[in-house]
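Case 541 in the screening queue. Each case pairs one protein sequence with one candidate compound; here the compound is zinc ion. For every case the pipeline is the same: read the inputs, emit a complex structure as tokens, and attach any notable structural observations.

Predict complex for case 541.
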Amino acid sequence: MTTQKIFVNANIVTMDPDKPTAEAIGVSGDTISVVGTRAAAESWAANSGGGSPEIIDLNGATVIPGLIDSHSHITAGSLWGAHANCSSVTCQSIEDVQAQIEALAKQKEPGQWVMGFGYDDTGIADMRHLTYADLDAVSTEHPIFISHVSGHLAYMNSKALELAEITSATPNPSGGEIHKDDAGEPTGLLLENAAFDARKLLPLPDRDGIKELLLKKIADYNATGLTSTHDGGIGLSSSGPNFISIFNELDNADQLNIRVYGNIIMQAWPEYKKLGFGCGQGSNYFRIGGVKWFQDGSIQGLTGALLDDYHEKPGWRSELIYPQEQLNEMFCEAQAAGEHIIVHGNGDAAIESILQALELAQEKHPREDNRHMLIHCQMANPAYNHIERIIALGVIPSYFINHIYYWGDRHKDIFIGPERAARLNPLGSSLEKGMIFSAHSDYPITPIDPLFTIHCAVNRLTRSGDVLGPDERISPLEALKTFTTHAALCSFEEDTKGSIEVGKLADLTVLSDDILTVEPTTIKDIQVLRTVVGGKTVFEA
Ligand SMILES: [Zn+2]
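Case 541 output:
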């Protein structure tokens, strides 16, 4: 017999425009059976023959549809759960970074690798790269490897350099640099392919270890109110196939407490296709999503491809990853094959290149309702009608709104200057022109915290307290859509997710206050009280 539950005594924000509010929800198994008054829910339970339902009294709390992060890295992020957090969210100085690494090193035997992530040279007081000496000060017995926040740079201590056999005599790999001092000695900083090569030395946990880290990470997601997420990079490490089998195993055992739309990295996609995987295949819990492409890097790493020079680096615009011809060809092929294209583009030159390739693909292989996703889309440029062209293509951007807070001041002063920074992540303009867009954390690049991201979209406050581009702020209701109704559209799941309606999955997030009515600058302070996935409570404060 399917279990029945009634959630009562609640302020329900349904996100269903036909019936925006309610006070009770009846759930049968994993599906919503009734939305309305308490009396309606009770009479449904009495007449449905399901026995006496469990009654959950929410004491006046607010219920919103289960939140969906449309671009994060739950797989890579769970592996990083065993690494030191060196980001500027946690650390303000190199001393803080050293303390984080030291705490982890203390738990490891000499000789075992100590890894860290997120070091941000322009985000901490010291304003410089790490050196091997900074890391040797923590330990010379453990090899230490720290990733830069961009993912494209890394730092090693002398023990790690020794294991990587990097000396003053080692030449730079193609497409990479082993940074050296004036005397020709390696400083510990590795760039691009030198960093990617060194990464191959790092140990990966075994399947059981990966499963344990993933379960912990899923619980972290649930605690922030998330019931679904996209994974923006399955296949980023060699553990990709393990993750898929673990997701499927948890799903079959009814233990997967988050729904995942898993996008496969394009380099790995041919292998996955050989194994029989296809876009959209899977269950309500784990589904193979689209194919993930990159056409530039990050603005704060100065690798975002721009149409005009970087603010404090005249003459520098960085470069596209693929020449236009090649991207055109690859997107035409993906479009013809019916694949869901998920493409990373931060700078306006990357956005321009992506739109040209998608326009050509649509012209050559017309398809209805593509919903290709433009991930980040931070510098959509009005001079090139990017917003209008995105709308015409039916592309759904997922904006990286957290940038306004974490990097907004530096975008204004260092990277792109005040004029371009004010229209970074142009939510207001997009809305005005009628675009549908979602938003994301890109965890572990910024913390998983959908309420904080919604807060950023509404307030656009930087770390220093400036409002960056006040005209681009949007209302709490529009901001909430980026994690509910509009996020559901990104994975073609609007029939089952995104709003609280009869027949949809019972994915619910219970909050201490109402996003739509609190003072907007306090949205980030709202507490998540309970998270429900398919009728099952997976988190309770
Ligand atoms: Zn990402």
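Case 541 observations:
- The pocket of zinc ion is lined by residues 71, 73, 232, 442 (CB under 6 Å).
- The chain has a mean pLDDT of 94.
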